[in-house]
Design a protein that fits this description.
With 363 residues, the chain is an alpha/beta fold. Helices cover 44% and strands 18% of the residues. Bound molecules: 3-deoxy-alpha-D-manno-oct-2-ulopyranosonic acid.
Length: 363
Amino acid sequence: MQATERAIPRGATPSKENKMNRVSKPRPDLCRRGFLAQSAAALGGVGAALVLPAQAAPGKVLLRISTPAVADDWHAKMWTVFQQALERSAPGEFEVQINLNAALFKQGAEPAAMARGNLELSSVSAFDIAKQVPEFSIFTAGYVVRDPAQQQKIFNGPIGAEMFQRVSERMDITPLATAYLGTRQLNLRDARKVSTPADLKGVKLRMPGSKEWLFLGAALGATPTPLAFGEVYMGLKSGTIDAQDNPLPTTRAAKFYEVTSQIVLTSHLVDSLFIAISNKALQAMTPAQQQKLRAAAQAAVAYNNENRIREEAQLMDFFKKQGLQISTPNVDAFRKTVQTAYQQSDYAKVWPSGLLARINAIR
Ligand code: KDO
């Protein structure tokens, strides 16, 4: 099933470049060189070598985007919405280059590339931020944020403003808008009974490669195994990993359901991605351009969030039809174990005093 896409902003149909991205549907199991060639081709048939202009056409503001997202996922498509919103509000002013599948920078390397001025935009995870702004790890902790509505209130209110200020000062990037990546669920290669974290003992659970992610995997009771997103499909297929965790729309878009047999609805993390821009690029813009940029980022996340929330509610049937078992564990047991692990960790020691209570108070 391909869920019906709601193109929210008027005229937000994919551009020619991104239609190419969508039609070519690069597979997560393709090698990075393949992605590079594909991306280069999508950018104008340059050929196998990735030759990206370091500068935009004369008079245009260059906005290079890099994301590990696969073309069929909402947080990949949202960049087309962003691009087209800018083209409508500021015709001819910006040159937006969308690079999917980690074709330009590997997963997690984007913030450093932005700070160095080699990349303008990306969707940055709380985990990437927590590496440099440790108190942001509160948003990497399982079972803290309750649902997407609360997530938006948190980041669009005073807490978001305070935390984004710290990000801007310490990382030299500015978050512009908060995308709901989805609620992360476990997805196992071989079905097994999973009721509590103890049932995951010894399960090689793939996590993205940073200590913040690995901590979450361990807190769930599994044996966390670092692997880049683009290698997960093959890892599951070959059996080098036993499981992965991602929101259901991503498990569909990256086709992980083809190489797994069970989804366990742990709902352990209401995950976010922050559309962020390098401060260097932001400061080089006029106030009017900055305002249009912010509006385009808001349009992009609105598109992502609505489509993703709708699809999350529909996907269970799809996975069942694909032959997957869907099981519901003892979520209270998972919540208790994971929350205890975080409370007793060094992460919680740097959470600003009272922040957890303020988050909890947001309804
Ligand atoms: C993943 O690697 O599991 C993850 O979901 C982590 C996110 O922070 C984000 O990088 C995402 O992958 C990619 O955008 C691919 O969907």
